Amino acid sequence: xxxxxxxxxxxxxxxxxxxxxxxxxxxxxxxxxxxxxxxxxxxxxxxxxxxxxxxxxxxxxxxxxxxxxxxxxxxxxxxxxxxxxxxxxxxxxxxxxxxxxxxxxxxxxxxxxxxxxxxxxxxxxxxxxxxxxxxxxxxxxxxxxxxxxxxxxxxxxxxxxxxxxxxxxxxxxxxxxxxxxxxxxxxxxxxxxxxxxxxxxxxxxxxxxxxxxxxxxxxxxxxxxxxxxxxxxxxxxxxxxxxxxxxxxxxxxxxxxxxxxxxxxxxxxxxxxxxxxxxxxxxxxxxxxxxxxxxxxxxxxxxxxxxxxxxxxxxxxxxxxxxxxxxxxxxxxxxxxxxxxxxxxxxxxxxxxxxxxxxxxxxxxxxxxxxxxxxxxxxxxxxxxxxxxxxxxxxxxxxxxxxxxxxxxxxxxxxxxxxxxxxxxxxxxxxxxxxxxxxxxxxxx
Amino acid sequence: xxxxxxxxxxxxxxxxxxxxxxxxxxxxxxxxxxxxxxxxxxxxxxxxxxxxxxxxxxxxxxxxxxxxxxxxxxxxxxxxxxxxxxxxxxxxxxxxxxxxxxxxxxxxxxxxxxxxxxxxxxxxxxxxxxxxxxxxxxxxxxxxxxxxxxxxxxxxxxx
Lengths: 445, 159
Description:
The structure holds two protein chains of two kinds. Chain A is an alpha+beta fold. Chain A has helices at 8-12, 23-26, 28-41, 166-170, 174-182, 204-210, 217-220, 222-234, 243-248, 255-261, 289-297, 299-307, 353-367, 372-387, 420-434, 440-444; strands at 15-16, 19-21, 44-48, 57-63, 66-72, 78-82, 97-99, 103-105, 112-114, 119-121, 147-151, 154-158, 189-191, 196-200, 263-265, 271-273, 313-315, 319-322, 327-335, 338-348, 395-397, 412-414.
């Protein structure tokens, strides 16, 4: 047992308002505690219901470091089960998606389970007669996570059996997910193809923080966005811009643009950039789309939905949603210095295909392992991960537009270049890290 | 002036060498300006538009990509990456001089390195070639990575 285990005072001490200790990004014990506490106590994104559209459809993923299966049961309900046979631990599903029919069958000893996890059958069951198997957890079948909630098609889970409710955890932040879904004339999304999978040799929180870091685009992305603007100008600045200009060039917007866009923070670590406008505001109109929206919602409501141009919404702890382009990025922690980023896109059911084509283009241009913008970002994260090993300074600064006695329990709107949302995340980080720690050591000291 | 199968094969080798040696101006000049470089994300993917790909780049994006490599503030290329292609003799699947086109299918191993890291990709490149004024040009290029659905770190140069 290390220094931080069962020591909530020490964990809380890693966050000092405008500064956080580098152990948050580098320490293996802190990472293990994040998996044990934070990723158990918070509501974590699992998947989209369209990934398991039919009965028996399943999809495998991780909640923190826990392998889980999202599966649609015979009654149509979505269940999230630990991906582990209760017998010897074998992973039940190894492929990323599939259909298991009416039951799961472990490939090792053929124990079988209903798609809600209940034990169905064990071969040669008489071998367990009188052994007390029915008194064990193994006889309960595949263990479900603590609680599952499907919100407008998005599946979230809390691993801990007891804890904060879904609505209380997310509160008003659900408006960003809502706006993304409302952009479908039918109010429905469908996942479009497999996600990009991009491996980062850095801590997962660097990626989450970067989603509302509005002072890096014009610096770190000068190489890609700045070059795009220069090439376009060399072409004589044609009115008909190349696709890349529409997607990439807004990253070169000046500081004032990002200051004016605004940042809104919500309780429990959620927040977003782009209250007033964003880099997605000036995309060209797609013929037929507004008409379809007007028909579905009426003109006023359609305009209100499309006038929201929120940039990045962080759902604490580890996803980001872009409503205007129907993208969700899942920052899956694999270790203190290793993060898998999965970037999903969704089809707006009932909208013209051109919208999905732009969304797919955005995804590959910005978030692929082959993306020049992605290269800019990953270089910074990995340099930070290495630089943090320096003993010259142990604290990381998140002080931009810091105010004394910031209250993160209320929704707050401010200048778009603030680092308040990062501080908001760390406030929630302490809360959900320590709420299930026993604190015995604190009492003993 | 005519184009032979051997010319087509030599062209594919020469393209790989240009990429290995970083001769990007020459490489860009091989392309027809309405061509696309496609690297699917999914095995045997058929649609470049409505699902994500790793790359589906028009001439502007390709030019941007190679121009960026030499930028003063391209930090992910300080120091620069290097790449190395080992290619198997291309299959010339089609050579139609009257229509001015050819198709090739080439297996290769692509190695990219920067600092202490090096990785290898096994892939098949399919080229749609056009014969314009007696010269071979790239109309479209598709690169299928053997492990296209795997999680990658940065792939900064081009197979």
